[in-house]
Amino acid sequence: MRAVRLVQVGKPLEQADIPIPEIGSSDVLIRVAAAGICHSDVHYRAGISKIDQLPLTLGHEIAGRVEEVGSDVTHVSAGDRVCVHYLVQCGSCEFCVRGLEQFCRSGQMIGKHRDGGYAEFIKVPGANALPLPDEIPFEVGAIMMCSSATVLHALKKARFKPGESIAIFGFGGLGFSALQLARAFDSGDVYVVEINPAKLASAATMGAIAIDARAADPVEQIKDATAGRGVDVALELIGCAKTMRQAVLCLAPLGRAALAGLTAESMSIFPYAELINKEAEIIGISDHLATELPALIEFACSGKLRFLPETLRVVELGAAEINAALDALQDSIDHVRTVIVPSSDK
Ligand SMILES: [Zn+2]
Ligand SMILES: [Zn+2]
Predict the structure, then answer these.
(1) Distance from the CA of 210 to the center of ligand 1, in angstroms?
(2) What are 301-340's pLDDT values in tens digits?
(3) From the CB of residue 295, how many other CB atoms can be counted at a distance below 10 Å?
């Protein structure tokens, strides 16, 4: 089968012809119909996130049709439409038994620790293949398994409740889903903090209160707009110490700041005035859980989570196309997501 693989860190991905994986009794073989190209993949190619074992087929945002199932797999069968949960768990460690597979002691991420979806076929444990309703296109099924899933997890971790106000820092792929999912939870006012005029305009079109961080301190703007109160929840999706601090400072009493952006910078907080005094919380967000995905699929099915056709770009499963998409993603300024659709899926 065709696969596009990372062979050497810091170099373009290469196309290879490799055997179709053989499945075990608990596995599922999926014919890939769509594989999202994610910003994490840019980091893997560049060596910013370390890949232990090369060559490796990248791609952790995957949807397709079941080609073959192992004898122990009963919840899906050949021909079914599925999307893939990218965290492979052992199922028996102290974290897995509590349903917290993102901390599995021997957990693996598909497309990072084991071969991913930039290929015609992928083998995954049966438990990682979730039925994908007909209403959801493969392309959407693929991309919502990463950014949308992380944002849903962030809202859950922040204990976001109907009627609560929220500030979303960053309106890229994550922020785009965050605004829609906050709405799906019957949010109160939604503030979107951005510096990009096109993104601010698009957030406003979608009903958010756009906060232009270039115009004035976003914390002051949010405080002004809420009569000094602040917001109940702040989501930091950028990965920058400055905006993480702003996310904490714009909180109302009992507010929760959920930090999902990645950065190696350190952040300073004055404990009494900025945290203790208002019993605010800072919550770290890492990946998501399999148990959260059915709700996400339901939101997509009911139209509460949508991806406009003009925000999806389709490319063929080829090294040149994928490398070009990764290059473009490095300085992406819009919501356009690139999805690989192998031409063999007819
Ligand atoms: Zn991703
Ligand atoms: Zn485990």
Answers:
(1) 26
(2) 999 999 888 888 999 999 999 999 999 887 765 667 899 9
(3) 14
Span 217-227, average pLDDT: 98
Question: CA 160 → CA 116, 128, 152, 155, 233, distances in Å?
Answer: 32, 27, 10, 5, 7
Distance 225 CA to ligand 1 centre (A): 34
Q: Is 88 exposed, middle or buried (0-12, 13-18, 19+ CB in 10 A)?
A: buried
Tokens 């004035």, residue? 216
Q: Which ligand is nearest to the CA of 150?
A: 1
336, exposed or middle or buried, with CB in 10 Å at 0-12, 13-18, 19+?
A: middle
Tell me 20's DSSP state.
P
pLDDT at 318: 97
Encode burial over 13-43: b for 16+ CB neighbours within 10 A, e otherwise.
beeeeeebbebeeebbbbbbbbbbbbbbbbb
- Per-residue pLDDT tens digits for 134-165: 999 999 999 999 999 999 999 999 999 999 99
E-strand stretches of the chain: 2-6, 14-17, 27-36, 56-57, 61-69, 81-84, 87-88, 108-109, 121-125, 129-131, 166-169, 190-194, 209-212, 231-236, 251-259, 281-284, 312-315, 337-340
166, β-bridge pairs:
190, 233
Q: How far is the CA of 291 from the centre of ligand 2 (A)?
A: 15
| Per-residue pLDDT tens over the stretch 33-57 | 999 999 899 999 999 888 989 999 9
Q: Is the pLDDT of residue 234 over 70?
A: yes
Q: Which of 134, 124, 25 is nearest to 79 (CA)?
A: 134
Inter-helix orientation angle 197-205/173-184, to 10°: 20
Shortest-distance ligand to the CA of residue 112: 1
Distance CA 247, CA 219 (A): 8
pLDDT at res. 345: 45
CA of 29 to the centre of ligand 1 (A): 21
